[in-house]
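Running this now, will post back.
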Amino acid sequence: MRGKDIFFKQMKQLMVSGIFLIIFILVAVLPGFSTSLAPRYYKVKKGDYLIDLERKYGVSWKKIKEVNAITSNTIYQGQELRIPWEGIWHTVREGEYLNLIAKTYSEACEISQKIIMEEIIQANKITNLDNIKVGQKLFIPRAKEVLGIEIPEEKLPRAQEGVYHTIGKGQTLYRIALNYGQTQGITEKEMQKKIMEANNISDPTKLKVGDELFIPGAKKVLEIEIPLELVKKEDISMPTQAELVEEPPIFFWPVEGEIIEYFGEGGIEWIGIAAPEGEIVVAPAEGIVLERKFLQGYGETLLIEHEEEGLYTCYFHLLDYLVEKDAQVKKGEPIARVGMSGAVDIPCLRFQVRKIGSEDKTVNPLDYLP
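Update: finished.
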């Protein structure tokens, strides 16, 4: 029996190591905050002090010290320093354009529009000032909070041609977009993007039967065909009272904050949640801490196994841990704190959910959250 126990323990360790290897390979090649911001550097001139760089760039001199691993408060002529970015992420709305965005934030930051414009262009690696798209996330240096942009009347969006579609049973945004996209000669992805923008939808998984969607460009309401293999006999009968009771979500939210990265966008296999540095991260469900270690580029990382749910949860860019490896954690128990470890420029938690099994498949965390 002792030999079997050792064998199974070794097999579990190999499985955990394999999971971490897969996670590392996946996250190392996918887009993130650091790849969306251009690095910037400053060559120290004679008479420069750290406080001078804080005034010039609007970044704390302590942060500049930390990023460059400077142990004293002295900098030297000719020394090349990396200047980190501090600011917020702004999602471009219809009618907004770069000059107007820069003007709004420059007034709030009490600094010239020219400086803010130059820093936005540099941080976001913008090469075409006219190529700013609705839904695009722009990093705004120096800003402390997201601002509403007052759009000039002539730039306000005009009423669109379209129809209202009521979501029926078995209909998903994918299938609705597929049908309406075909009538307009565009792909399902393009149509889905248009529908989400027109209806201000951030999470299509929360749509439900009876919701109305505005379908831009549509001439008439379409009947959405559901494939026969998806139609079940019980769908024909009226739902019982038990069927109408919504099942409780599997997970708690690990931390509260704005979702700034969505599962599936550009190959992303997690959701990104912006939260203050040091904010407590809690266990979304009961489980066992399988691993806690530093992953290159993705910082302090935690892996929890939820055997009853058949899932793993992964947490990236942590500040520190509040639980030990192999610890049994309860739902809602503090497990870590939000940080900026790894290659990110704002405090955030990247939260990933994976199915337990040989395929180790990632799934959308929003499907398991309230």
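The longest strand covers residues 311-321. More later if anyone needs it.
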